[in-house]
C-alpha cells in the first residue's frame, strides 16, 4: 500500500471511542433490502498450526462488509470431509479490542535525521491513545543488534520515555528485530489483539533469523505483523510477504511526516479486530498430503445463496509412518517446470462447468480457464507469461471438489 498526499482523505481515525464504534457498527450492519444483493467472500489465508487449522476470511454484501456471521452460515470441508466441530470468531464492532502491541524501530543509519524524529513522534502519539486499564505495549529497536528497551506493560510514561531513547547507529538487523518483537508479543502479551508494528528504513544486515521463522512464530502464536517502510532502501517483496502471511499489512512512504496517519490506520484495524473472521478446527489424521479446504458461506445476503472459496495446506506425515500414496488425480499437466505455456489435460467429463485455476501461495487467483460441462477429454493451454519464477498451485475446480497440484514456473 503506497501512501501519498491523498492518504489523509481515506485514512481511518484511531481514536475509536465507544460512540465511534457504534457509528461504524450501524453503518456496516445496515439491513440490505435488495433481494438481488450478491455475497463476496475473501478467504484471505489458511494457517497450518497442526493439529489446529486456522482460517481467516471476510465477507460483504454488494461491497458492504458484514460481520454478524454465525456458525450456521458457515460450512467447512477439509479434503472433502465435513468439519462438524469448529470455533468461529467475528469482529464485534461495538467494543474496541484491547491490544498488546510491540512498537519496533529501525535504529540503523538509514533512519537518521527527520526519519528518527518523525518515527518517535508517531510512536508517542499511539502511546497517548492507550487505555492503561486494558492496553499494553512494548518498545524495541534494532541496529546491528536488538534492544528491548521497555518490555510489555501499560505505563504510558515509561513507554514514551523508552521511545525518546531511540538512538541511530550502524547496521540494521531487521529480521532479528521483528522476530524478537513477535516473541515479546507472543510470550508476554495478554490481550487477544496481539501485533507488531515495525518501522524500517534499510535492508536487513546480519540477522540470524529468517522471514520464514518470523512467519512461523507469528502464526503459531496468532501475532500479526504490520511494517512501515520509509524511503526505498528496504526489501519490499520480502517484508510485504511477512505482513501478508501473518495477517498484517505493509505500507510504504517517502515522507516520514505521514507516519502518524499510517499508525492511525494500523491501530484502528487492530482496535476493530482486524476486520475479519477467524475459524479454527482440529485435525487428527496426519497423512502427508496436500489438503484443499472449502469454505462455504450461506445466506449472507439472500436466503439459500451459497458462496464457496478454497485454499490449500500441506498436512504432515505421521511420525514413523510413510505418507499414503496420493489418490490419482483427474487432471495432469506438462511441462513441469514450465515457462510460457502450461498444457493441462483431463479425461473427466464434468457434469457441470469446471474451471482450471493458477494461484500463488497467498491464494491469489492469477489465471482462470473455463471448462464447459460435458466437454470430455480436453487440453487447455494456460498462458504463464508475466508470472515471476516460483512455485504455484494448479487447481481443477468443480461443484463437487477442488483438486490441487504444484507447478514450478521458471
- Overall pLDDT metric: 82
- Per the CATH scheme, the topology name of the largest domain is Rossmann fold
The CATH architecture category of the largest domain equals 3-Layer(aba) Sandwich
CATH class of the largest domain: Alpha Beta
Helix-strand category: alpha+beta
Q: Shape from CA axes?
A: globular
Low-pLDDT runs of 5+ residues are 1-35, 321-328
Query: Strand portion, in percent?
Result: 35-45%
Strand order in space, largest sheet: 9-8-7-10-11-12
The largest sheet, given as strand count, sense and whether it forms a barrel, is: 6 strands, mixed
Order of helices and strands: HHEEEEEEEHEEHHEHEHEHEEEEEEEEEE
Total domain count: 3
Total number of β-strand segments?
22
CATH superfamily of the largest domain: von Willebrand factor, type A domain
**Termini separation:** 27 Å
Helix content: 10-25%
Please count the helical segments: 8
Radius of gyration over alpha carbons? 23 Å
Q: Mind explaining what this structure looks like?
A:
The protein has helices at residues 7-10, 18-28, 114-128, 156-164, 174-188, 211-220, 236-246, 259-271, and strands at residues 39-49, 52-61, 64-66, 74-78, 81-82, 87-89, 99-106, 136-142, 146-153, 193-200, 224-230, 250-253, 277-282, 290-298, 306-314, 331-334, 341-346, 354-359, 365-371, 378-383, 390-397, 402-409. By secondary structure, it is of the alpha+beta class. The protein is 21% helix and 35% strand. It is built from eight helices and 22 strands. The strands form five sheets. The chain has a six-stranded mixed β-sheet with strand order 9-8-7-10-11-12, sandwiched between helices. A hairpin with a 7-residue loop joins strand 14 and strand 15 (306-314). The protein has three domains: 31-94 and 276-314, Immunoglobulin-like; 99-254, Rossmann fold (3-Layer(aba) Sandwich); 331-409, Sandwich (Immunoglobulin-like), CATH 2.60.40.
Amino acid at each position: 500500500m503506497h501512501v501519498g498526499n491523498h492518504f489523509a482523505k481515506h485514512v481511518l481515525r484511531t481514536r475509536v471511542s465507544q460512540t465511534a464504534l457504534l457509528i461504524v457498527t450501524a453503518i456496516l450492519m445496515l439491513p440490505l433490502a435488495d433481494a438481488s444483493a450478491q455475497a463476496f467472500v475473501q478467504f484471505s489465508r489458511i494457517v497450518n498450526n497442526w493439529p489446529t487449522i486456522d482460517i481467516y476470511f471476510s465477507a460483504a454484501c454488494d461491497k458492504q462488509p458484514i460481520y454478524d456471521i454465525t456458525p450456521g452460515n458457515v460450512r467447512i470441508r477439509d479434503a472433502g470431509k465435513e468439519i462438524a466441530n469448529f470455533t468461529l470468531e467475528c469482529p464485534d464492532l461495538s467494543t474496541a479490542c484491547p491490544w498488546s502491541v510491540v512498537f519496533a524501530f529501525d535504529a540503523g543509519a538509514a533512519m537518521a535525521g527527520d526519519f528518527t524524529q518523525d518515527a518517535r513522534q508517531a510512536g508517542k502519539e499511539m502511546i497517548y491513545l492507550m487505555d492503561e486499564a486494558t492496553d499494553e505495549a512494548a518498545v524495541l529497536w534494532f541496529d546491528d543488534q536488538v534492544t528491548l528497551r521497555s518490555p510489555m506493560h501499560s505505563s504510558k510514561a515509561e513507554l514514551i520515555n523508552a521511545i525518546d531513547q531511540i538512538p541511530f547507529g550502524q547496521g540494521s538487523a531487521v529480521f532479528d528485530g521483528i522476530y524478537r518483537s513477535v516473541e515479546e508479543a507472543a510470550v508476554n502479551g495478554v490481550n487477544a489483539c496481539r501485533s507488531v508494528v515495525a518501522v524500517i528504513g534499510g535492508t536487513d544486515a546480519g540477522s540470524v533469523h529468517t522471514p520464514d521463522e518470523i512467519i512461523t512464530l507469528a502464526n503459531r502464536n496468532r501475532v500479526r505483523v504490520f511494517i512501515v517502510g520509509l524511503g526505498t532502501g528496504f526489501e519490499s517483496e520480502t517484508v510485504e510477504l511477512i505482513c501478508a502471511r501473518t495477517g498484517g499489512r505493509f505500507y510504504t512512504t517517502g515522507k516520514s511526516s505521514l507516519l502518524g496517519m499510517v499508525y492511525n490506520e494500523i491501530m484502528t484495524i487492530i482496535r476493530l479486530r482486524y476486520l475479519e473472521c477467524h475459524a479454527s478446527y482440529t485435525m487428527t489424521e496426519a497423512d502427508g498430503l496436500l489438503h484443499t479446504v472449502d469454505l462455504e458461506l450461506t445466506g449472507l445476503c439472500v436466503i439459500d445463496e451459497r458462496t464457496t472459496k478454497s485454499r490449500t495446506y500441506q498436512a504432515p506425515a505421521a511420525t514413523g509412518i510413510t505418507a499414503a500414496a496420493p489418490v490419482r488425480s483427474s487432471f495432469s499437466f506438462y511441462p513441469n517446470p514450465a515457462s510460457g505455456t502450461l498444457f493441462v489435460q483431463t479425461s473427466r467429463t464434468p457434469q457441470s462447468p469446471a474451471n482450471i485455476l493458477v494461484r500463488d501461495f497467498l491464494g491469489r487467483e492469477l489465471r482462470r480457464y473455463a471448462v464447459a460441462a460435458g466437454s470430455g477429454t480436453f487440453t487447455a493451454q494456460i498462458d504463464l507469461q508475466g508470472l515471476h519464477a516460483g512455485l504455484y498451485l494448479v487447481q481443477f475446480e468443480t461443484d463437487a471438489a477442488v483438486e490441487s497440484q504444484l507447478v514450478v514456473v521458471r
